[in-house]
Amino acid sequence: MSLAELKSQLPEYAKDLRLNLESVLGENGAPGLTQSQIAVVALASAIASRNAAFTASMAAWASEHADEDALRGARAAAAIMGMNNVYYRFLHLVENDEYATLRAGLRMNVMAKPGGSKIDFELASLAVSAINGCGSCVASHEKTLRKHEVGAQAVQSAARIAAVVHGVAVALEQAEVAGSSASRAAA
């Protein structure tokens, strides 16, 4: 499904999301990021948003703008952050410092060799962490990006892409639910 077809599926109440999606996925709508980085962040964000049909559409779109190695890095970021965000959010929320002294015991080898560039992986990890609501991980990835001299606008662009992609996934899911409900009521 093309980006145009995807946007056409958004309900009228999600018009802002339609416009924002077009904006943030364009090179001028994400200052500081290359088109490949935009694709990597968008794919990782779609995966984190857990809408299979939307993720498939974003994967098709992303494959036109980034190579397979970079897209593998996006998938790796979404997968490992799916685990890390839960664990590190737990450490933050439990309000007991003892847990932070314990060994996590979770394999995270993919972070050393994620596929694609380390900066792209960090951008995708930041975006997924924002979607998953892990403040500790967002702060850690932002710090790493800034240490690698990635500017504030690029970091903000990754967060904006995550926000819009997640919003679109939610709106599409709700449109599907509404359509299913209407079909059942008509039957």
TrEMBL record:
Family designation: Belongs to the AhpD family.
Catalytic reaction list: N(6)-[(R)-dihydrolipoyl]-L-lysyl-[lipoyl-carrier protein] + a hydroperoxide = N(6)-[(R)-lipoyl]-L-lysyl-[lipoyl-carrier protein] + an alcohol + H2O
Free-text function comment from the UniProt entry: Antioxidant protein with alkyl hydroperoxidase activity. Required for the reduction of the AhpC active site cysteine residues and for the regeneration of the AhpC enzyme activity.
Organismal lineage: Bacteria, Pseudomonadati, Pseudomonadota, Gammaproteobacteria, Lysobacterales
Disulfide bonds, paired cysteine numbers: 134-137
Superkingdom of origin organism: Bacteria
Name used for this protein in its record: Alkyl hydroperoxide reductase AhpD
HAMAP family: AhpD (MF_01676)
Residue ranges annotated for the Carboxymuconolactone decarboxylase-like domain, each copy included: 98-177
Signal peptide annotation: none
MF-aspect GO terms: disulfide oxidoreductase activity; hydroperoxide reductase activity; peroxiredoxin activity
Residues annotated as the enzyme's active site: 134 (proton donor), 137 (cysteine sulfenic acid (-soh) intermediate)
GO biological process: cell redox homeostasis; response to oxidative stress
Alphabetized SUPFAM superfamilies for the sequence: AhpD-like
Organism field: Oleiagrimonas citrea
Keywords of the record: Antioxidant, Disulfide bond, Oxidoreductase, Peroxidase, Redox-active center
E.C. designation(s): 1.11.1.28
Keyword hit for Disulfide bond: yes
NCBIfam families: ahpD, ahpD_dom
InterPro entries xrefs: AhpD (IPR004674), AhpD-like (IPR029032), AhpD_core (IPR004675), CMD-like (IPR003779)
Record Pfam families: CMD (PF02627)
